[in-house]
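Hi, here's the filled form for the chain we discussed.

Project: internal
Contact: R.S.
Residues: 394
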Amino acid sequence: MNPGVIDSHATWQSAARNADYVPALTGLRGLAAGWVLVYHLWQFSGSPALAIHVMGFAIDFTPLAACGFLGVDLFFGLSGFLLSMPFHRAVLARTAMPSLRTFWMRRCRRVLPAYYANLAIIVVVLLALGQPALLTPLNLGSHLLLAQNLVPVRETFNGVYWTMPIEWDFYAILPLLMLALARSRAGLVLLGMLALVLAFRLLCYGAYFNEPWARHFDYGWIVQLPARLDEFVFGVLAAGVFVRRPPSARARSTLLVIGAVGIALAMVVITSVGNDLLPPQLPWVLLHFTWIGAAFGAFILGAAGQRSWFCWRWLAWLGLISYSLYLWHYPLLEAAQHFHLLGTGDTTALLFTTLIATPAILLVSWLSQHCVERPFLAPHQRKVADLQQLGAPE
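And the returned structure, exactly as it came back:
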């Protein structure tokens, strides 16, 4: 046996513990980013049917591609889990809560450089193409402040930017949520949160049908906070369980099955009912995010202690570049479409689009992570990034 491999393995395990790094969740981040990428590859290819006929039986993979937007919901659950872990550990050890200044500075260093670089390049491209219509002071200013969800006209520069304010707003809410969890029972906090989000969704639903009301309250907020707070909270609660009493191997497997079944059932409903958020359809519009958030919360908790395929090197690498991948894949697909490089219409077109676009997307995402994200990371965050680059030992 190679001693270097043993030393590397021991160093990796030690650093992972010190960095509070959960290897399987890096793989889940890669899975989430890959799922969103598949969804948009499928969309840009004309949303073809993906059924395979074998011995008279049809196996339809279309829902897997058509529901790829659920990767965003998985990202939200992972954010709740990972960002709340230091707070949970402080509560468990009865020590001071993590510094809020340090927390927010790390969030800024983690999120803003790649986002601003992406935004700046898109603005330059729009100017070069003679398309300055989006570059109004209000639109550009709201994007710079990650407050584009608050302006009346939501013309976005990038098809994935609509999720950025959701994450950003959660960073402001998380310390308050952890304070509530530290001073109250988790069950009471969960009930209070569910009451809040359901009431907010009802307000959004009412605004859709009430024009005078809609002048003051936008239905579009149904996809923003607090309507989606429960997706983060299920991740936060899962982290609390993981920190206090990690599930046994059998319990982890059970949680994985429960989460996977919950998501599979949600996909069945989504593909049969359609987009229940536009137009809003009761009861799905009220249950949609809670159902998905709870399923992903169980799945994340089950995966957190696993050392199986979630820790594969290629999935860890995809998790490493997941943020840049998320930012860059949509505008690159738009550029490829603009120059008529993508195929549309059937599975062959999807295969062609995937082969043409994916290598460029992965290359640009890696460059963004390596040259833009990493230099701005705090030492703690850079250590985690190095672990993600290393991946799990074989």
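Let me know if anything looks off before we file it.
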